[in-house]
UniProtKB/TrEMBL annotation:
Name of the protein: dTDP-4-amino-4,6-dideoxygalactose transaminase
Pfam families, per database record: DegT_DnrJ_EryC1
PANTHER family (alphabetical): PROTEIN RV3402C, TRANSAMINASE
Keyword annotations: Pyridoxal phosphate
Active-site feature positions: K185 (proton acceptor)
Length: 370
């Protein structure tokens, strides 16, 4: 227990010298925020990297969700998943929208499209799925349903930085997608996020909304908010963009090692890569079958902690069990059997670019030696 803790993640950091040079530039220009040159450059470079035409930077990954709902004027009820980080559902609540939880698919932990139609009511205006762990949702099926009922689709793609299906960015699907650049993510700007939209007009509108609604010096065209990314974070993000591919490849290698070592452990399952998908290996969830493994998920989780291996039970407890939401009809556990089951089995193993072979060996040995 004297070893250093192995956390679930570790942030990608640029070289301190490079960052210091950027800071010097910022000190000299004295432009700290409000669409400065680092901000402009990062928007352009990220749009290119992510293969999307229009991207708006934000100060975190929660405000683009809230802003997307405002921009699309979503009201009434929105169908969403309980198996996510709580920010997904909070964004609906902050807009006075009623979340309607729908169960997930056990093969991906994403919203199960086959369960969506039964949850649609005359008040439903949109669907908010999450590409959880960076695994792409069934975007085609979701779009078919949305088109049939005239619903908007806003993807919470907080985990899906750089994920592609058949060479196309997953962020191009739906009406809008959001990203998080939090320190714990594959790509970070300390804190940060983005909203991906599909046309210039909408980008303009989002840029107004994230700056109090100002269209110019004297005109406020909407009740906007302040969610602009500052120059320091943008500079940090520009540097991190240079090494993110390498970091994703390092994560890929960790995933290969985990899969090889854990494939024959009875009672432990995990996801394989999906065909034609460029994954980002943002998380490595394993699912513990108590009877077959001979230990409960929590027993393993606390045993790992004792050994200084700090996995996380993302996404337990389900959002639908939190006090704000548990009174909703759709939050009843009997309505969400698969999500409940998966949340009770999951442990996300440490997954990041800086895990050493010794770290990986230690993590695996805690799971293998019961
Ligand atoms: N939608 C989805 C689907 C999301 O997952 C999230 C965020 C959002 C929306 C909202 O995006 P943001 O507004 O956050 O940009 C973390 C993150 O705070 C959160 O961003 C993330 N999802 C969520 C899944 O995880 P915690 O409470 O688990 O983080 P924390 O502080 O316990 O960190 C985990 C481990 O990472 C630590 O044990 C050590 C390591 N770590 C963490 C930080 C913050 C570091 O090494 N350095 C650090 O700076 O929530």
């Amino acid at each position: 227990m004297n070893d250093k803790p192995i956390y679930v993640t570790s942030p990608l950091l640029p070289s301190l010298d490079d960052f210091t040079s950027s800071l010097k530039e910022i000190w000299e220009s004295k432009i700290l925020t409000n669409n400065g040159s680092f901000h402009k450059k990062l928007e352009t470079e990220l749009a290119t990297y992510l293969k999307v035409p229009y991207l708006c930077l934000f100060t975190n990954g929660t405000l683009p969700l809230i802003t997307a709902l405002q921009a699309l004027r979503i009201t009434g009820e929105v169908i969403t998943t309980p198996f996510s980080f709580v920010a997904t559902t909070h964004s609906l609540w902050w807009n006075g929208i009623k979340p309607v939880f729908v169960d997930i698919d056990p093969n991906t932990c994403n919203l199960n499209p086959e369960k969506i139609e039964a949850a649609i009511t005359p008040r439903t205006t949109a669907i908010m799925p999450v590409h959880v762990y960076g695994k792409p949702c069934d975007t085609e099926r979701i779009q078919e349903i949305a088109d049939k009922y005239g619903l908007k689709v806003i993807y919470d793609a907080a985990h899906a930085f750089g994920v592609e299906v058949n060479g196309e960015s997953i962020l191009k699907t739906g009406d809008m997608s959001t990203l998080s650049f939090h320190a714990t993510k594959v790509y970070n700007t300390l804190e940060g996020g983005a909203l991906i939209v599909h046309d210039e007009q909408t980008k303009k509108r989002i840029d107004y909304l994230k700056n109090f609604g100002f269209a110019n010096e004297t005109e406020v065209v909407a009740p906007g908010i302040n969610s602009k990314m500052d120059e320091v974070r943008a500079a940090f993000g520009l540097l991190n963009l240079k090494s993110v591919d390498q970091a994703i490849e390092a994560r890929h290698q960790v995933a290969i090692k985990y899969r090889t070592a854990l494939q024959d452990i009875t009672g432990i399952t995990f996801f394989d890569d999906m065909p034609n998908v460029r994954h980002n290996y943002s998380y490595f969830p394993i699912f513990v079958d108590e009877e077959k493994y001979g230990m409960t998920r929590d027993e393993l989780y606390f045993k790992m902690k004792e050994q200084n291996v700090w996995g996380r039970r993302y996404f337990y407890p389900l959002i639908s069990t939190f006090s704000t939401y548990r009174g909703l009809e759709s939050a009843r556990p009997e309505n969400l059997p698969i999500a409940t089951q998966m949340a009770n089995k999951v442990i996300c193993l440490p997954m990041h670019h800086a895990l050493t072979p010794e770290n990986i060996e230690k993590i695996i040995s805690v799971i293998i030696k019961k």
